[in-house]
Amino acid sequence: MLHVSVDNCGITVDNKSKKISLDPNKQPNSDFIFVSHAHSDHLYRCVKENGNKIITSKITHKIAMHRGYKYGDMYQEHDFRLLDSGHILGSNGLLIEDELYYTGDISIRKRAFMNPAIIPNARILIIESTFGDPDYIFPKFETTIHKANLIISEMYHQGIPVILLGYTLGKAQILTNVFRHWKPLIIHDSIDEMNKLYSEFGISMDNYVTFSEAENNNILSSHQPWLLIAPLASCKNGFLNYIKKKYGALSIGFSGWAVKPYYKYALGLDYCFPLSDHCDYDDLITVVKKCNPEKIYTFHGFAESFADSLRLLGFDANPLVYTKGNRNKTYLKLVTFFNKSNS
Ligand SMILES: [Zn+2]
Ligand SMILES: [Zn+2]
Predict the structure, then answer these.
(1) How many whole angstroms from 199 Cα to the centroid of ligand 1?
(2) What is the pLDDT of residues 271-300, one digit of tens each?
(3) Of the chain's two ends, which shows fewer C-beta atoms within 10 Å, N or C?
(4) How far is the CA of 278 from the centre of ligand 1 (A)?
(5) Pairing verdict, β 227-231 and 162-166
(6) pLDDT tens digits for 102-135?
(7) Ordered structural domains, the chain, with CATH
């Protein structure tokens, strides 16, 4: 019998002989650690020396090591199946004993080279609920890309350079891929590092110059428009504000949180499109129906309200929320739209 619990380290699944921690944020007391993907809110620094065996994909392992996490060897266990979760390259959900499915971060939409998640049937489902609120419904991927292309085209026509902004790992590689026909294409150096890792795993990312190469070769100050892909951050100060002012560039952000109009103003962006590597509300419901579980646990973001919605639909659902003491409720890894850890 599998037992699910949550404490200050994160979510743990227990069955009589072994304990597995799912994306722990501290050193857990468990036999196995599952790392679903290489975003920093799912990694923690010191997996080693405690005898935990790490279950993760080769790609996640490689990206994590590249980001400075010192992980031991990967371990395989026949009771555990890794299933593509469609979130970023190398991301996986975990199916334990054909009975419990943990989604990690998940997307079921085809986006450029990213494929939709594979969803198994399972008796118990642990599902992320970052956008588990009915307000968060995303437009089609193709529609968003088309709209952005129209704006870039108009700007190029007027000789105005454009900056596209997305999370450094995951989103930025999708942007590099779908906007590669614009020239000159300039990629921020931190994104170039991640692009190179993607290339090593067969997703070719080329035909661009890095930001430092562009600066050295005076591409930015030449009198032709350019397209820069940079990490999503506020345009109100720092690097982006400097670039915008110096070259009169227009900024376009890409994030699921852009469903709310105030997001664009909060970050000081000219445009912002809802484009996410997560499921929107309807997608989450689709995942639940496909999985067809008897028991559901929600985590991340709208964990409590999404569990409420699922109960209204007739499912047996509870949020996995770590409760400290009686009153002081702490959401497990609450995601806000300023969460930089997603980069
Ligand atoms: Zn993630
Ligand atoms: Zn996450």
Answers:
(1) 20
(2) 999 999 999 999 999 999 999 999 999 999
(3) N
(4) 8
(5) parallel
(6) 999 999 999 999 999 999 999 999 999 999 999 9
(7) 3-136+278-342 (3.60.15.10), 141-273 (3.40.50.10890)
